[in-house]
Amino acid sequence: MKSYKELPDDAGSNIIGQVTAQANRLSKRLSSVKHTIAVMSGKGGVGKSAITTNLATALTLKGYSVGIVDADINGPSIAKMMGVRNITLEYTKSGILPATSLLGTKIISMDLLLAEDDAPVMWNAQTQKDAFTWRTTMEVGALREFIGDTEWGDLDYLLLDLPPGSDRLPNVVELIPNLGGVVVVTIPSEVSHLIVKKSITMARDILKVPMIGVVENMAYYVCKHCGEPEPLFSPQNTPDHVFDEIRLGRIPFDPKLSLSNDSGTPYLSEYPDTPATKAITEIAHKIQNFFNT
Amino acid sequence: MKFLCIDCDTAMKFKDVTRPEQGSVTAVFECPECFTEIAMYLNPSETQMLKSLDLKLGGNNEAVQPMQMVRSQLETAKKDSFTNISSEVTNGETAEGGKCPFTSVISDAFDENSEPTPEPETSGLKWTPEALERLERIPSFVRPMAKMGIESFAKDNGHSEITGEVMDAARGNFPAQF
């Protein structure tokens, strides 16, 4: 009786061929993107999406062509922050046309597809029981389509806003083997540092992804009376040295930044002279230098 | 996965697949030498995993649609999430694979919302429009088997085209009316 290896193929399904075709489509699409950047944290609530949108805007304002993939499939917020929630996506024979912000940043997000504000992402299935066995696979498939089936055109930078956790970066690296680099976002708290260090290890040491650096968000606030920086979190907190070595910058807390995100308006161009705008612009400049563009 | 006909020591070939019924897909394989057929049942979890991977049993020769998995599988999507602004429906790109002669049926198999579109020529037999229309009237859970049976009857009786008359002649072999 013939063994498995002696049988010529998989009876006609050509699963390997189908998977290869998916990878080829993705690779072909990414060939027009110069630099891909994953923005991640590990910790939730540190402002990853706010940093992603504002870095994208900063790079756009520098004259680069920039796109954002909202890789937070279950908690998409990029479309709202970029003011494109209510558009209907259009598609042509070669792909989906991304939403475009006021300043020209291109965006794709699950939020653009969901029926209602309170609609969670639910996938068609006979039963949601045991969904843990396939749901992540479905989400990675969605991410693959977001990246590979969007008509980005020629991009200088494509930013991916990852959900909390260090577990999604390996999926991204599988989809984009030559990922340009990772920006890690934290806040100045020991709890955040504890979690974020795991993400740094995952990215830099395990997956060997280039580490662009760490952004410390809500690092302090500027006193509106005296103009002096004051700590927003515990003043006794001393960041781990790992953050000192690769810190890209410290962004002060500014309520106006949150308001701009809520209203979908570009904070950087609305408030060009604030300390937060200067910090974000400087970080964008360092990212630009990282890629030597 | 591969299947071996033990008697012939020959790899079996994919023949057909049903649409999911109660979340479960059935694939039929045939020995190219003795024509013995077997049915493989995927339970709902296995079927769902294949859907999640956007893979098609029997291969996929159909043109790839932009974001086809998300567009077909997102249950909480808003109506008319996408607008086609192209005069062409497909992007002309074709997935790899697809050695199976029943590609169109197979590719549709996971799309429970799509209209069934039997491929008249994939079996080597042509279906007239009238015959196709009657085929559509057969309950979905027996349609693939009925289609195979009708084609088998037609081949056995020397017909190169399946017409209403051929279906009338084959009708006695099936429980469903068409």
Question: Layout of SSEs?
Answer:
The complex is a heterodimer of chains A (293) and B (178).
Chain A: H1 15-30, E1 33-40, H2 48-61, E2 66-70, H3 78-81, E3 89-92, E4 95-97, E5 99-100, E6 106-108, H4 135-148, E7 155-161, H5 168-175, E8 181-186, H6 190-206, E9 211-216, E10 221-222, E11 229-230, H7 241-245, E12 247-250, H8 255-263, H9 267-270, H10 275-290
Parallel strand pairs in A: 1-7, 1-8, 2-6, 2-7, 8-9, 9-12
Antiparallel strand pairs in A: 3-4, 5-6, 10-11
Helix pairs in contact in A: 1-4, 2-10
Chain B: E1 4-5, E2 10-11, E3 13-17, E4 25-30, E5 37-42, H1 44-52, H2 68-73, E6 82-84, H3 103-108, E7 126-127, H4 129-136, H5 143-156, E8 161-162, H6 164-171
Parallel strand pairs in B: 7-8
Antiparallel strand pairs in B: 1-2, 3-4, 4-5
Helix pairs in contact in B: 5-6
Descriptive key words:
A: 293 residues, Rossmann fold, eight-stranded mixed sheet, globular, B: 178 residues, Helicase, Ruva Protein, domain 3, 2 domains, three-stranded antiparallel sheet, two-stranded antiparallel sheet
Tell me briefly what this model is:
With 293 residues, chain A is an alpha/beta fold. Chain A has one domain: P-loop containing nucleotide triphosphate hydrolases (Rossmann fold, 3-Layer(aba) Sandwich), CATH 3.40.50.300.
CATH topology title of chain A: Rossmann fold
Strand order of the largest sheet of chain B: 3-4-5
CATH superfamily of chain A: P-loop containing nucleotide triphosphate hydrolases
Note the beta-strand portion of chain A: 15-25%
Got a strand count of chain A? 12
Poorly predicted regions of chain B = 89-121
In helices, the fraction of residues of chain B equals 25-40%
Give helix % range of chain A: 25-40%
